[in-house]
């Protein structure tokens, strides 16, 4: 049996999404900016896809949604656009973010720091919670942007976006959120939460890879990251990947429906909890950040005495896919920075394993994974030179 539990890294394309995309590879393939019927033939479905994106995050009709290559491009567009508009060409020089953002935010902030920008990285507590009041405390006269993720990619922890949005609105500071890990897992409403910029990536909610979007509220302009043609109203040059845009829109429709969100919150949560509770039956295991206030599909578990990479190797032998954290940093064997930010000791910072489910996982798969995980823990602890191992009376063989 093959069991994929790394859905925060990427998801399978929903077969219904693939059906929507298929005609735009070999049949309706015109450049949408061309004047002939081959180009115009793409327009109805492109408009429909944009409408699905607007509906999925409750954007207003007058707001902009820019199709990008991924959330990384969207994040860079916001941070570097703010840098150009409000820092290089204005009187602002300060950005607020958190210590546990995705590398697409933190690496860009490090670049901006190399250019003289002042960046405040707000800490989280041992439960992975960011206190919204910290944002208010650190806002300065020269603050140009606040950028805080909606949900953490490793722990699933949900941040107080509505409270932060209100603080930023009252202070007159633009607010950006990377909602990549929130779409399709929890309700996302840019109007209710006073969000000015929002990034997302289709492959996180069963859409295709290589396409994302950036929401820009009316009145909040940005210098484009890419210059060239007049695509996306001049906000993002380059011919749009029509098939992927249509796939992203349809995936958004499926993922953000009331039925889909209820399924995530009930069925997927139930499977996640079953997996998690079975692992926690083993001594010296714990959920990083605790169980409260998380997306329903994610758990980051620390297993004392077991290196995360070793656990992944064992699970891979049983055709189970998991992760030690962000896929964008999976080749980095340094201690997990998110776990460090939570205050984990140096040993535990290397022991985190993330399991992230989707609506396509089954209870049979979870049962298989539980057995494999338990056996792997016992095997790896037994050969550890630093862990005092007490063998169980019986360990099942798969």
From TrEMBL:
GO annotation, biological process: cysteine metabolic process
GO molecular function, one term: 2 iron, 2 sulfur cluster binding
Domain Aminotransferase class V span(s) in chain numbering: 3-368
Reaction it catalyzes: (sulfur carrier)-H + L-cysteine = (sulfur carrier)-SH + L-alanine
Keyword Iron part of the UniProt annotation: yes
Pfam family, one: Aminotran_5
Protein family: Belongs to the class-V pyridoxal-phosphate-dependent aminotransferase family. NifS/IscS subfamily.
Originating gene: nifS
Name the record gives this protein: cysteine desulfurase
SUPFAM superfamilies the UniProt entry points to: PLP-dependent transferases (SSF53383)
Keywords carried by this UniProt record: 2Fe-2S, Iron, Iron-sulfur, Metal-binding, Pyridoxal phosphate, Transferase
Required cofactor(s): pyridoxal 5'-phosphate
Function: Catalyzes the removal of elemental sulfur atoms from cysteine to produce alanine. Seems to participate in the biosynthesis of the nitrogenase metalloclusters by providing the inorganic sulfur required for the Fe-S core formation.
EC number: 2.8.1.7
